[in-house]
Write a structure and sequence with these properties.
Rossmann fold
Length: about 200
């Protein structure tokens, strides 16, 4: 319950970096991880772990000798995760997801098996979204899976105005296969996209 309080406090003070009103439900976490095929020595990237609902579920799935690189720019969430998860497979980075290419190179990873993203893509600029996906793709191959969720109302801010945003249309520009699943048991309900090259 403490993670909900931490999340709620941060959502009220900084919605742009949380991009959510509540932590992900276990049902959303399951839908995000179900498409992943993980084996010994896997390298997984998580964008925006928040209070770690999906992170913990990932660590339950992740084989020994695997690595989870989690990018979290929110100071409160980063501190909370440092205190509450002490798994040696977790490499917690207080860096923007935009640094993914640089950090993968720095840490010696040539490819990733999976990327799990909780980023509010609608709150990012089009340039930021394209830069992020462009930096990530060289580390993915036909066996890699990228999952992303979007709340069912799917909004973005463009030129100071709120309008509908389809993350599926964006993802189809980068991935050959994009499958969508609805998760009703989440606050709010969300679409989960599973993408492959």
């Amino acid at each position: 319950m403490r993670s909900f309080g931490t999340f709620a406090a941060e959502a009220l003070s900084d919605y742009k970096t949380t991009a959510a009103v509540a932590p992900s439900s276990p049902y959303l976490a399951h839908a995000m991880l179900e498409p992943l095929r993980l084996s010994e020595g896997s390298t997984v990237v998580e964008f925006g772990p928040g209070t770690g609902v999906i992170t913990r579920a990932l660590l339950d799935l992740l084989p020994r000798d695997s690595t989870l690189l989690a990018f979290e720019i929110n100071r409160r969430f980063y501190r909370y995760l440092r205190r509450s998860i002490s798994d040696p497979r977790l490499v917690l980075l207080k860096k923007s997801a935009a640094n993914v290419g640089r950090e993968l190179h720095r840490l010696g990873h040539k490819r990733v098996d999976a990327v799990v993203s909780s980023l509010g893509l609608g709150l990012m600029s089009d340039r930021e979204r394209r830069s992020l996906l462009g930096a990530l793709l060289p580390f993915m191959d036909e066996e890699s899976v990228f999952t992303q969720y979007q709340y069912f109302h799917g909004m973005e801010i463009k030129d100071g105005k709120l309008r509908r945003f389809s993350v599926g249309s964006l993802l189809r520009q980068y991935f050959d296969s994009v499958e969508r699943k609805m998760v009703w048991r989440n606050l709010p309900p969300a679409f989960v996209f599973a993408c492959r090259k």
